[in-house]
Amino acid sequence: MKAIVQDRFGAPEVLELREIDQPEPGDDEVLVRVHAASVNPADWYAMTGTPWVARPQMGLRKPKSRLGLDLAGVVEAVGGNVTRLEPGDEVFGAGTGTLAEYVTVPEDALVLKPAKVSFEQAAAVPVAGLTALQGLRDKGRVQPGQQVLINGASGGVGTFAVQIAKALGAEVTGVCSTRNLDLVASLGADQVIDYTKEDFTRNDRRYDLLFDVAGSRSWAACRRVLTQRATLVMVGAPKGNRLLGPLDHLGKVRLASLRASQKVLFFISKSRNEDLAALQHLLQAGTVTSVVERSYPLSETADALRYLGEGHAQGKLVISV
Ligand SMILES: NC(=O)c1ccc[n+]([C@@H]2O[C@H](COP(=O)([O-])OP(=O)(O)OC[C@H]3O[C@@H](n4cnc5c(N)ncnc54)[C@H](OP(=O)(O)O)[C@@H]3O)[C@@H](O)[C@H]2O)c1
């Protein structure tokens, strides 16, 4: 089968489309013929081998695993213990090495794809959708009527976060650049702030939850717009230096906020079957739709990661396999 492989860490040029052996499903696994995948900043970090503190997980000298975390496709074969899925089922979910024609995934990491949602739209969902859902519902504990600010509302996580925060009943303010103002408003944001023209931390409004995808501002600035009992959920941060990467910003905010009355949390999203099912229902109901800026063929994955690495993708970048 064809797959994206890399023998060393580096810029997108290290990625190659190569013929490798097709995997076989273990007893609890499903073999999926991938129709679409999508790229996430986590793939960019895994490709470049940065930040260096993450090298024990990524591989000290060369990559331990292939790229790709999101997938949508058709079940080709199932292991002996698999009961929920069967060959022919159209599924989406989270895996490892999904930038390939076939991938084996634990049964729990997949749910059925709603028929009205395309493979490309479904492949855009897993990592970004789970991050938005778990960050807002479980970490931010959004309540109906609360004021929620999403900083970085127009990218992969942000476009899902705006829609999910609205579905949870919040009054949502989205922060993005000029070209994305209409998009973020169309996703349901009640207010949209253009960060190239206005500083959201100099706003008169006060927010119960700051869902910080961009991580572009210091704690001292962010706290100005938080209520006394607010929560700051740190989702992402600028790429930072090669040693610490985004941990540099996350650590600084954590330290600076130690004595604050507000709650400050960082989390890493997890692939949970019940949360994928919740996203499946939101897609089925039309409450959430994927925003896909562009779809690339598998052979052009390097271009997708190069563009993603610039940090200004609009919604998701999908790979069509
Ligand atoms: N904690 C977790 O489990 C988890 C999971 C997934 C992702 N993440 C992290 O979350 C971050 C975003 O991921 P993603 O998939 O959404 O990335 P993405 O698709 O590349 O989106 C990045 C977005 O950030 C916006 N942005 C850039 N600079 C900004 C600024 N100064 N103020 C406000 N918005 C700004 C861009 O909008 P404009 O084009 O309008 O500038 C772009 O739409 C990354 O740091 C990623 O590593 C964390």
Protein traits:
27% strand; seven-stranded mixed β-sheet; single chain; 321 residues; alpha/beta; binds NADP nicotinamide-adenine-dinucleotide phosphate; Quinone Oxidoreductase, Chain A, domain 1; 2 domains; six-stranded parallel β-sheet; Rossmann fold; 10 helices
Folded structure, characterized:
It is built from 10 helices and 15 strands. Strands 3, 4, 5, 6, 7, 14 and 15 form a 7-stranded mixed sheet that branches. The chain is globular and about 55 Å long. The protein has helices at residues 41-48, 55-58, 119-123, 126-139, 156-167, 181-186, 219-222, 247-256, 273-285, 301-309; strands at residues 2-5, 16-19, 29-39, 70-78, 90-94, 102-106, 110-112, 147-151, 171-176, 191-194, 207-212, 226-234, 263-266, 292-297, 316-320. The chain folds into 2 domains: 2-125 and 290-320, Medium-chain alcohol dehydrogenases, catalytic domain (Quinone Oxidoreductase, Chain A, domain 1, Alpha-Beta Complex), CATH 3.90.180.10; 128-266, NAD(P)-binding Rossmann-like Domain (Rossmann fold, 3-Layer(aba) Sandwich). With 321 residues, the protein is an alpha/beta fold. 26% of the residues lie in helices and 27% in strands. Bound molecules: NADP nicotinamide-adenine-dinucleotide phosphate. NADP nicotinamide-adenine-dinucleotide phosphate binds at residues 40-41, 127-128, 131, 151-152, 154-158, 175-177, 180, 195, 213-214, 216, 235-237, 246, 267-269, 308, 311-313.
